[in-house]
């Protein structure tokens, strides 16, 4: 049955099948595969550089921690989505706190439109509150219509700024 045909109570029930929690070492393989699915979805798989080992290091050992939440299906323990984020001190002169930068964010196609994306943001907001951080920023490709709609619906507004990048070395 498609999501649009689910009754309200069935919709709420499906939503409750998931828990959103911090990533564990045992999740790495599944998250790595979903990260590649996201790159394919964004049509940038040819630019994908990360190895699974590097991902392990960045999340669990790096001096600049890369944090990740995952959605776990409570019936079969499979993972259905992830959200990466980092804390950053950028632009402190104009804001009351540091910020959280939402990095890669992905829900598997069969679990979209169940409110899971919204639940990820709610969980993330708890972390912001714990750390007294009052702002989030996210990068979303212009071509990603659904992603842009999702963020607008969830309280984000577009900043009128050009993003420039200077990469100092390549592998
Ligand atoms: C964007 C994404 C994370 C949203 O996750 P989700 O679990 O489907 O989102 P939710 O069910 O919480 O939707 C919340 C709201 O966002 C908007 N939205 C979500 N999907 C939408 C769609 N396909 N079309 C239009 N609006 C949409 C709706 O307003 C929705 O509220 P509603 O269902 O009450 O109308 C998911 O679609 C996804 O993984 N997409 C592919 C990767 C991606 O674009 N990532 C984000 C940018 S990096």
Which features characterize this protein?
alpha+beta, 171 residues, Aminopeptidase, binds coenzyme A, five-stranded mixed beta sheet, 5 helices
SSE pattern, N- to C-terminal: HEHHEEEHEH
Helical residue percent?
A: 25-40%
How many DSSP-defined strands? 5
User: Judging by the overall fold, what is the CATH architecture?
Assistant: 3-Layer(aba) Sandwich
CATH class: Alpha Beta
User: Which class best fits the helix and strand makeup?
Assistant: alpha+beta
CA(first)-CA(last) distance: 46 Å
What ligand species are in this complex? coenzyme A
Integer-rounded radius of gyration: 17 Å
> Which homologous superfamily in CATH is the superfamily?
Gcn5-related N-acetyltransferase (GNAT)
Q: Mean of the pLDDT scores? A: 92
Please explain how this structure is put together.
- This protein is α+β, with helices and mostly antiparallel strands and 171 residues long.
- It has one domain (3-153): 3-Layer(aba) Sandwich (Aminopeptidase).
- The chain contains five helices and five strands, in the order αβααβββαβα.
- The protein has helices at residues 8-16, 28-41, 52-60, 116-130, 145-153; strands at 18-22, 67-73, 79-88, 99-107, 136-138.
- The chain has a five-stranded mixed beta sheet, with helices on both faces.
- The mean pLDDT is 92.
- Coenzyme A binds next to α2, β4, α4 and α5.
């Amino acid at each position: 049955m498609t999501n649009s045909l689910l009754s309200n109570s069935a919709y709420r029930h499906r939503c409750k099948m998931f828990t959103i929690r911090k990533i564990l070492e045992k999740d790495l393989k599944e998250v790595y595969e979903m990260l590649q699915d996201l790159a394919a979805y964004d049509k940038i798989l040819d630019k994908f550089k990360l190895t699974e080992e590097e991902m392990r290091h960045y999340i669990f050992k790096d001096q600049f921690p890369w944090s990740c939440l995952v959605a776990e299906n409570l019936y079969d323990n499979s993972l259905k989505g992830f959200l990466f984020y980092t804390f950053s001190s950028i632009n402190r002169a104009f804001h009351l706190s540091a910020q959280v930068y939402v990095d890669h964010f992905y829900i598997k196609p069969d679990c979209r439109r169940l409110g899971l994306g919204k639940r990820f943001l709610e969980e993330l907001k708890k972390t912001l509150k714990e750390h007294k951080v009052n702002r989030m920023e996210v990068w979303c490709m212009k071509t990603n219509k659904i992603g842009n709609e999702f963020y607008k619906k969830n309280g984000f507004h577009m900043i009128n700024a050009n993003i420039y990048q200077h990469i100092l070395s390549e592998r």
